[in-house]
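From the methods appendix. Each design record in this collection lists the tokenized structure first, followed by the designed amino acid sequence. Records were kept in a plain field format so they could be parsed without special tools. The example shown here is representative of the layout used throughout.

RECORD:
FOLD TOKENS (353 positions):
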């Protein structure tokens, strides 16, 4: 197994830094794993190990606001323009011009912004749970796609995205609630899924946050002691939880404060992407529901070389089904961008029968 090494790159005139994990041969094809909310670089460890083992140079950063990267309580640090500046510095630190970019949750919004702003740096694009041309375009990128059969506009004007409006209306109150038990929330997001929820009931909880409160109005997050053991291996979970306890939720949650600014930065819809793209649907993600709703439409309309795969998992698919996710990524690369598979173009491989 390849050794994972720690690195950091400074940018913004040396004011900010991004810490990142790297593994695999330095001359291997480059792939980035970009986490979302809440996660850190180490939560991609099973992807880093798998990709390094077949010859990729695999890299996962602590995104700005997380882990060992700069985590200032300055909201401007977490708009997409600022985040993309950091990732371009990260790419430059590798000495490469382009990579395969894999993003999950807000990481999907970030890799989508990279594809819009710097398409020449994206050999292939992989979005997990959140499609291209949605969240990175601000409210107009995803609110019109709400399934109004489930969320009538007169009752749920923001649909399942009500919780995002809660950030805008009472950010400090939200963070105060989260930070009552950071370790407990980390454990909650890392639980082995139980019986699959009724989609409408689960969706209702996210659509009423401003009215009822978080997690159905609990006075505080559940503690780790109230929950079962995390599905993540202990060494990964302990590192993730320690990092989140160090930063708290303010900085990572500030990504939600810039819908208007992100829309100005990335412009209107219909950004065409012609290189290979993969979307990973997760069957039981009731908030980022992409199988029955219209949320997937913009990616289908604007990615001309698109592959889709569905994994029987909930939102945190890399926690729950790492082998299945790795297999889907491997197959996509071999099928759609074979020149990025280590040794593919150099091997004397032929089918004789």
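DESIGN:
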């Amino acid at each position: 197994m390849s050794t994972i090494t720690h690195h950091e790159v400074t940018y913004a005139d040396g004011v900010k830094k991004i810490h990142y994990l790297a593994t695999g041969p330095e001359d291997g094809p480059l792939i980035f794993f970009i986490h979302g909310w809440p996660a850190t670089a180490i939560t991609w460890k099973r992807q880093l190990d798998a990709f390094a083992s077949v010859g990729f140079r695999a890299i996962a950063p602590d995104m700005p606001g997380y882990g060992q990267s700069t985590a200032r309580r300055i909201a401007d640090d977490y708009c997409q323009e600022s985040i993309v500046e950091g990732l371009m510095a990260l790419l430059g630190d590798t000495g490469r011009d382009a990579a395969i970019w894999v993003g999950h949750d807000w990481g999907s919004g970030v890799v989508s912004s990279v594809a819009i702003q710097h398409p020449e740096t994206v050999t292939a694009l992989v979005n997990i749970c959140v499609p291209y041309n949605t969240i990175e375009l601000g409210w107009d990128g995803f609110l019109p796609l709400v399934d109004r059969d489930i969320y009538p506009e007169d009752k749920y004007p923001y649909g399942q995205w009500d919780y995002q409006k809660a950030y805008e209306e009472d950010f400090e109150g939200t963070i105060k609630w989260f930070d009552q038990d950071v370790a407990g929330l980390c454990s909650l997001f890392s639980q082995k899924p139980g019986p699959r929820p009724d989609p409408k009931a689960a969706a209702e909880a996210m659509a009423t946050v401003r009215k009822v409160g978080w997690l159905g109005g609990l006075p505080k997050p559940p503690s780790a002691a109230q929950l079962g053991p995390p599905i993540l291996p202990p060494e990964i979970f302990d590192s993730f939880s320690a990092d989140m306890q160090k930063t708290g939720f303010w900085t990572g949650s500030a990504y939600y404060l810039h819908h208007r600014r992100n829309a100005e930065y990335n412009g209107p819809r219909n950004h065409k992407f012609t290189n290979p793209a993969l979307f990973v649907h997760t069957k039981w993600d009731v908030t980022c529901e992409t199988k029955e709703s219209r949320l997937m439409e913009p990616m289908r309309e604007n990615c001309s070389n698109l592959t889709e795969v569905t994994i029987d998992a909930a939102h945190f698919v890399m926690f729950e089904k790492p082998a299945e996710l790795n297999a889907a990524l491997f197959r996509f690369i071999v099928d759609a961008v074979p020149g990025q598979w280590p040794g593919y173009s150099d091997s004397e491989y032929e089918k004789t029968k």
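APPENDIX NOTE: The chain is about 35% helix and 15% strand.
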